[in-house]
Amino acid sequence: MVDKFENGLGELGITLSSDQRKQFDRYYELLVEWNKVMNLTGITDYDEVNLKHFIDSLTVVKIIDMNSVKKVIDVGTGAGFPGIPLKIAFPELEIVLLDSLNKRVKFLNEVIGELGLKKITAIHGRAEDIAKNKSYREQFDLCVSRAVANLSTLCEYSLPFLWISGSFVSYKGEFSENEIQQAERAVKVLGGKISETKKFKLPGTDMGRSLIKIDKVNKTPSKYPRKAGLPAKEPIQ
Fold first, then answer.
1. Which residues sit opposite 143 in a β-bridge?
2. CA dihedral (93, 99, 104, 106) positive or negative
3. How confident is the model over 65-91, as pLDDT tens digits?
4. Of 32, 85, 109, 124, which has the maximum CB count within 10 A?
């Protein structure tokens, strides 16, 4: 019987080898194991993790042609979503996972080692600081984030990492149009342009999801992002 995970992959047009399936299963095992001693996820059921974390992470294919992407940064990756599922499904990607909690970075490094993943790095730091570093600023053609924050704040974290013609994709639940309207000025100030919004149901569920794609059309002024804490406390309005 074809399982829910396979159905979800089919809906997204993604085919995995048996080795890639084993990598996802081992990732699940590590997630549940480490979750006993640190807070990584509230979801631990096998089918639910496959659907609400793994398939959800891969839905970016609805709005981005992953064959045209080479370098990706996942801002506020947490337990590795969406970055690690993207790396497993598209092994040729070069990926940086960024998180502000060092213990989560230790978990990510354990997953990277256990799964034998190459060309993927987990770094500890805040987006506001790392985006000022020349090694990371304007170095990526795709930035992704499932982090929970308003769109204006997420843009300030994310757009500085992209070179011109790169794209930022924000993963959202069923957001209100107000959120996009409130972020319009921030998007423009930071050198972006909202190019597409895709609303859909998570495969096999009635859960509403949204992907917001923002293209980088101009350089981000050097004063952005502002110092740590400010983008969240005082979003650009």
1. 73, 168
2. positive
3. 999 999 999 999 999 999 999 999 999
4. 85
